[in-house]
Structures are given as C-alpha cells and as structure tokens.
C-alpha cells in the first residue's frame, strides 16, 4: 500500500515528539504579537516564523501573522501551501493589487495622468509601464501607487486585523513587528505608508500600550543569488531602492511631535493623513551573511531571522533582575529606545542541547526490541496453539473419529441419538420395533438439510476464527495474525504452517475417510439370528436387545458422518476457509507491510540522525549511550510493544481507507509512559550516562541526583558543560544577522545576553561556572535561566548602530551615485548625512 501524502506527514511529525522538554504553553510564550510581512522577503520570514511555532502555540497566545504583497501568483502559492499546514492562509494575506491599474500607465504618466491626490508625488517623466498581477517589479513608485489605489478597502482589512489582535489581548498590550525588505518595489514602496497608517489608527483608538517595531532586510541578503549579482542593472536598482528606502526610514526615525516643520503626509483618493512622530519604536537591521565561500543563501537568513522573532514571541528573560527577580523580557529589550542611535543589530546563536535527538536514540533502542517481538510469534506459542485448538478442535475430533463414533459438532440438525428408545426383544423378532424406520426417516430429512448444515458449520468456524484473529490483532498485532494464519510467502512464513497447515491436514483427513456398511451387516446378522432362534433366557434377550440397539445407533451415526463429510467435500468447506484465511493474510500484508516499514524507518531515521548530531556535538563523551545500563527491561519492551500493537489495531480502518493515522499522538503517549521511569532531571541524567566514566545503572544515576551536591555529578556536568560551551562559542562566532564594516566594535555599545535551560539546573550551574571563568570571563549578570528551550542561547545586541557602519551601505551609495535615476524618492529628498559620512564614535 502506498501511503497518502497526509499520512507521510504524520510520520514526519514523529520528530516533533517532546517527552522531557514538554512544557506548558503558559510558561513558554509571550503573546499579544502581530507580525506583518511586506513583499516577498518579509512574507517569507513571517511564513518561516509561523512554521516554527506551529503546533506550539494556541489561539490564547494571540500570536498572529499578516502578509501584504502585490504579487498575486506568490500569494496564491502561499495560500495553496497553507492547505498542507505550511504557509499563510487566505485570512492572513492582503493584496494591494487591483485590476483598475493595469492599463493606467502604458502610455506614461503625462499621457494618462492618475488622480492627483493618488499620485501627485510621482515623477513627471515616469516611464511607460504595464502594471500586472506579478507585483511592483522592483519599482517603489508602483508599489506606493498600488497601495494608495487599494487603500479605501485595504485599510478595512488592515485595521480589522489590528482590532482583532488588540481585542484578543488580555492585558490590553500589543506589539507589532513589520518585517520588510528595503530593496523591493512593494516592500520599499509601502513600508512607510503602511507603518504610519498603523500608527495613526493606534493613536485614533487611544491604545497606549502598543509598540511598533521593524525588522528590515538589506539588499545584500540577496547577494547569494547568481541571477542578481550577474545582472549589474538589477543589482544597481536593488541597491538604489535600498538606499532610498533607508534614507526615508532614517529621516522618519528622527521625527518627533516637536518637529513642527517636518511631517509625514499620505493621500489616497478620499483620505489624507498627516502625522509627526518617529516611525518605529525599535528597528532591527538584517544584512547578508558571509562564510568562507561567499554569501549564505537568503533562505538561511530568512530562517535565522524568523528564529530570532520566535524568541521575541517567547517568555525569554535576559540578564539578572534585582532581589532574585528574573531579568527583562527579551522583547522589552528589543523595544527599548537608546539615546545613542536608532538601530540595532543582532548576533544570535542557540546551541541546542540535543535532548530530542538523545530521546530518539533511547526510544529506538526500546522500539527495536518491541518491533522484533511484533514479528516473532512462534508456531509453538501456547496462546497460538490454544487458539487453533479452539477453532479447529471440533473438526479435528470429528475427522479423526471412526464411523459410529458420537458426533460433536456445533451445528443444528444433528440427529439426537438419546431420543431413540431401546426396543424389546419381542418386537425385534417380529420385525416391528420401528427403530431403523424412524432413524431412516430422520436421516432422509437430514440429507435434505445437509447444505444448510454445512453452511452453518462453516459460518460457525469462520465466526470462531474471526474472534480468535481479532483477539490476536488486539493483543499481538497484524503480524501475529499473519503468523498464526501461516500462509507461505506472507508475513514471516516461508511455507504454509499454522492455521493453513491445520486446514490442509483436516482436508486430508476428510479425503482419507472411508464409508463403511459394517453396522448395517451387524444389524442384518442379528435379525437373521433372532428370526431363526428363540432365546428363552432373559440374559440372552437383553444381550440381543443391546446389540441390536447399539448397532442401529452406530449405523445412524455412521450415515450422519458420511453425509456430513460428503457435504463438506461437495461445498468445499475447507477450501472456502483456506481462501478466507489467505485473503485475510494478504489484506493484512497489503495494509500493514508499507505502514510498518514506514513506521520502523521513521523511528530508525530519527535515531540515525540523533547519532549523527550527538556524535558530532558530544564527541568528548565517554560513550554514546544515554540510558542506564539496566534500563531496557522486558516490562518496558512489552509496554512499547503493546503501544505499537494498539496503534496498528485501532487504525486498521484508517489505513485501509487512506485516512490519517495519528502516529505522533500514540507514540508520544507510549514513549512518555516508558521514559517517565528515568525520573526527575531526566535530560541531565541522560547526558550523565554519556559523560560518566562507566555507564551507570538507574539506581546509581538516581543516587547522583538525589542530593543538592554530589561530587561525581558535578564532575560529569563540568565535562558536559565544557563540550557544549566550546561548541556554542564556535557557532556563535558564525551566527551573525548583519555584516558591519571592520572595527565597529569600538564604536558601538554591545549588550550580551546568555540564556541557560531552567529545566537543567545542575548542567546550567556548570555552564555558568565555566562561562564566568577564564578565558570567557562573562559577567554573571548577563546569564539567566529560562523555561522553554533546552539550549545555550547567546544573544549579542548591538545598540546605536549608524547606517554608515553597514558594509552594504557603500554598495547602495555607489548605486545611487552611478545610477541616480534609480532613486525613486517617495517622501523626502533630503540628503541623509549619516549614510555618507562616518558616524561619531559611541562611548
């Protein structure tokens, strides 16, 4: 059976199972957040963020997403992807494209001017262009024109989203983060207009606890694309757009309500908006990242940015608070204004402690034993023998019986022998006993009923058979059912055995049966003797009566047996039962062979991936085992075995009909029941097994963690901390979200925040000792414990970053100077000095 795509997704969900690090959402997420993606770059970041949080958050967390774009095919693809559980859905997407602009500028703006209030800011020499469904095509003026044209109905959708997010906020607070590229026609063209419309709506509603931040992606994020860097005109246009967008953003970042001569103005056909205030409460800059081979692909950058945004959506504290209180929320730090500059950049790195991968390895160790048991039903299994006896015992006794033996079959219509009374000698002599005649009449009637009787007998056998197979299905799984059936070539049977062999044997007995007239001859002999002789002794008469009666009974039983066996043969009863069993076994193999293989492969793949990761990250570990030496007991194997059987048996109909099987939920339940035996401090215990000199038993491991202090535990945790911290330091150096010019560190204020997992207190204590000692010498006040992530998280937040210090600014300035017409000013024409001169050093 080939699994449907949705079922394949269920197997991929196995990797999302959480046992030891599963935590209450109320502890993990800091909701009341609306993330808006503008254009292609911003929308992809938001889409990635949604994917990372999918399955982790609930509607009560009030974390919402919105995409605003002009590229209809891109939006349609996004909606289509959302049907498979990824991407943004139709309620999370707003289009600024409207068909009424399609032919508006095909002859240029002079020949066909637009409404003055809609685009009185457009250049008089604007070239001929056809506006289509595939976006603003890198033209900022077109992006803004599309926004202004669609504003009358688009504003309703936008403001409804704001209302929904604010209404759902239990505290009345709401944070809005706008993620946008600066080089695109849509994103660069509508960034200011959309943000200030949001600002104006917030002010009109008198929402005092709403903050608006930005995450801006620079043009060099795209430098890894060959089609861009090999096209000088396209590259220059992107850089020029970025330069123009940043000039305007920088200008409005400095606006305050006191700047009476400076203001932002927006006009559509019927609306005009004027506002004086800074555009963003916080602005994060993202630029390209380089490694030894050049720029890293933009998809990696989108994912890293999305991951940082998930941190802002989490209850993540940074630094140390006073009097034992937790430090500030990372989101509050992100929104903090700073006198030394308007922009922030981030170096962030989460060095995941591979608890999930370790769990996968441990789960597989037990799973492999349980899976083996799933396929190991012995032909000598007592329950299998008992079951086969229950199904075929009556038939076996009947077919191995002799002519004249009593017939014990669960079928109506067998002539009850006890009804016949023993005739007296006198009546036998006169041939008036009527016994044989009575039997003959009933045998004749039975002969007419034989087809019905055989069908009833077959149905009884099949009903008993079904009940036994269902019991095995529920208790031992489909492969046990296939094994007890025993069809050669199906399951683990190379040749026919089990029930199939039983039927073959019974069929052979049936064919070997030889009818006999022995009892008829005995009766005739007795009658001849009685007719010729007269017995005067009572004992002789009794002997005659008994002999005659017994012979008649056995003759009746023999004739019944003959008819039943002949009926079985005529109706091919054993052939029907064999065909039923073969069909049952073939169906089970068809249903479960691929499913079982996919289940095994999914668990194996997770374990293999876990070994690759832990083998690299924990290369200093003493061994690659993570469970105590005595942990895999028969009871735990049986527990997992029962769980797999339940998964398979309960979902037979789902598999048969191509419906989704909830693999993740069932396996998570089973794993939780098994691994719960590790007890308190499970992640640290599993790491301790790997870093201990000798693999400990469960009792030894529990002893290590039973007291607040333990020298052996401390030594092991120090070893583990060293392995993780060295890896984290190496990774953090590469995990940059922005490229700045050399020497920036002396001019920019840096705040470092280190987060350690609260659910691993002993490990986190060891990491803290290591980080605060040489050569790291980190300030202890920078280190905090956090609930939620099993990671060493290092965030370097650089405050007061001037635009002139960004490495890509030179490329943008060059594009502006070489191709001045590429600068399509939308709001301002002032020269931004910071982008042309060195920024004063910041103490």
UniProtKB/TrEMBL annotation:
Residues 578-605 form a coiled coil. Keywords: Coiled coil. The keyword Coiled coil applies. It comes from the Bacteria. This is Tubulin-like doman-containing protein.
């Amino acid at each position: 059976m080939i699994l449907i795509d949705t079922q394949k997704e269920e197997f991929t969900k196995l990797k999302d199972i959480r046992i030891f690090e599963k935590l209450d959402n109320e502890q993990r997420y800091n909701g009341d957040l609306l993330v808006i993606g503008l254009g292609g770059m911003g929308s992809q970041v938001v889409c990635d963020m949604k994917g990372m949080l999918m399955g982790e958050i609930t509607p009560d967390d009030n974390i919402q997403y919105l995409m605003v774009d002009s590229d209809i095919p891109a939006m349609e693809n996004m909606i289509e992807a959302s049907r498979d559980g990824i991407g943004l859905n139709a309620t999370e997407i707003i289009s600024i494209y409207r068909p009424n602009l399609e032919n508006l500028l095909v002859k240029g703006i002079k020949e066909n001017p637009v409404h003055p209030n809609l685009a009185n800011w457009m250049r008089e020499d604007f070239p001929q262009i056809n506006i289509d469904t595939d976006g603003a095509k890198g033209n900022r003026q077109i992006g803004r024109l599309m926004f202004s044209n669609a504003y009358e109905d688009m504003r309703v959708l936008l403001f409804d989203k704001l209302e929904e997010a604010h209404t759902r906020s239990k505290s009345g607070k709401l944070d809005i983060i706008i993620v946008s590229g600066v080089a695109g026609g849509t994103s660069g063209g509508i960034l200011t207009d959309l943000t200030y419309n949001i600002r104006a709506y917030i002010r009109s509603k008198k929402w005092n606890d709403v903050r608006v931040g930005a995450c801006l992606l620079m043009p060099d994020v795209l430098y890894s694309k060959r089609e861009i860097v090999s096209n000088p005109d396209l590259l220059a246009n992107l850089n020029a757009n970025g330069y123009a967008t940043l000039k305007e953003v920088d200008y409005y970042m400095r606006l305050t309500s006191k700047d009476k001569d400076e203001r932002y103005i927006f006009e559509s056909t019927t609306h005009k908006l004027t506002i004086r205030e800074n555009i963003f409460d916080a602005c994060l800059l993202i630029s390209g990242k380089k490694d030894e081979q050049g720029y890293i692909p933009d998809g990696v950058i989108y994912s890293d940015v999305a991951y940082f945004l998930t941190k802002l959506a989490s209850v993540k504290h940074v630094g140390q608070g006073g009097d034992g209180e937790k430090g500030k929320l990372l989101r509050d730090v992100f929104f903090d204004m700073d006198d030394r500059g308007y922009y922030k950049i981030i170096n962030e790195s989460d060095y995941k402690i591979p608890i999930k991968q370790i769990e996968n390895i441990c789960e597989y160790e037990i799973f492999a034993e349980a899976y083996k048991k799933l396929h190991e039903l012995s032909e000598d299994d007592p329950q299998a023998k008992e079951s086969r006896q229950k199904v075929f015992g009556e038939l076996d006794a009947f077919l191995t019986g002799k002519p004249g033996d009593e017939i014990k079959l669960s079928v109506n219509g067998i002539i009850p022998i006890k009804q016949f009374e023993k005739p007296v000698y006198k009546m036998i002599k006169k041939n008036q006993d009527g016994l044989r005649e009575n039997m003959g009449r009933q045998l004749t009637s039975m002969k007419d009923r034989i087809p019905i009787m055989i069908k009833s007998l077959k149905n009884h056998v099949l009903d008993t058979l079904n009940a036994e197979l269902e019991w095995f299905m529920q208790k031992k799984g489909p492969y046990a059912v296939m094994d007890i059936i025993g069809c050669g070539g199906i399951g683990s049977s190379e040749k026919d055995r089990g029930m199939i062999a039983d039927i073959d044997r019974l069929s052979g007995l049936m064919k070997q049966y030889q009818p006999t007239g022995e009892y008829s001859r005995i009766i005739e002999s007795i009658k001849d003797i009685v007719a010729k002789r007269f017995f005067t002794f009572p004992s002789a008469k009794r002997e005659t009566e008994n002999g005659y009666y017994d012979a008649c009974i056995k003759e009746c039983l023999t004739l019944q047996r003959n008819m039943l066996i002949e009926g079985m043969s005529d109706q091919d009863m054993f052939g029907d039962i064999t065909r039923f069993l073969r069909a049952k076994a073939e169906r089970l193999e068809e249903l479960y062979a691929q499913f079982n293989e996919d289940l095994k492969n999914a668990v194996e793949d997770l374990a293999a991936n876990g070994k690759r990761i832990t083998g690299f990250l924990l290369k200093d570990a003493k061994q690659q085992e993570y469970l105590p030496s005595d942990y895999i007991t028969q009871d735990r194997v049986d527990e997992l075995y029962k769980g797999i059987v339940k998964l398979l048996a309960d979902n037979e109909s789902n598999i048969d009909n191509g419906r989704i099987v909830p693999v993740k939920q069932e396996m998570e339940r089973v794993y939780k029941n098994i691994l719960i035996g590790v007890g308190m401090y499970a992640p640290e215990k599993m790491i301790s097994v790997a870093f201990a000199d000798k693999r400990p038993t469960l009792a030894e491991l529990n002893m290590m963690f039973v007291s607040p202090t333990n020298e052996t535990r401390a030594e092991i945790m120090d070893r583990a901390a060293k392995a993780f911290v060295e890896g984290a330091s190496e990774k953090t150096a590469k995990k940059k979200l922005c490229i700045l010019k050399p020497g920036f560190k002396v001019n920019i204020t840096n705040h470092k925040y280190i987060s350690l997992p609260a659910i691993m207190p002993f490990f986190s204590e060891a990491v803290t000792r290591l980080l605060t000692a040489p050569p790291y010498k980190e300030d202890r006040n920078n280190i905090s414990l956090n609930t939620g992530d099993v990671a060493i998280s290092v965030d370097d937040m650089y405050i007061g970053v001037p635009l002139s210090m960004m490495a890509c600014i030179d490329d943008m300035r060059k594009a502006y100077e070489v191709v001045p017409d590429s600068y399509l000013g939308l709001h301002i024409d002032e020269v931004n000095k910071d982008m042309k001169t060195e920024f004063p050093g910041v103490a």
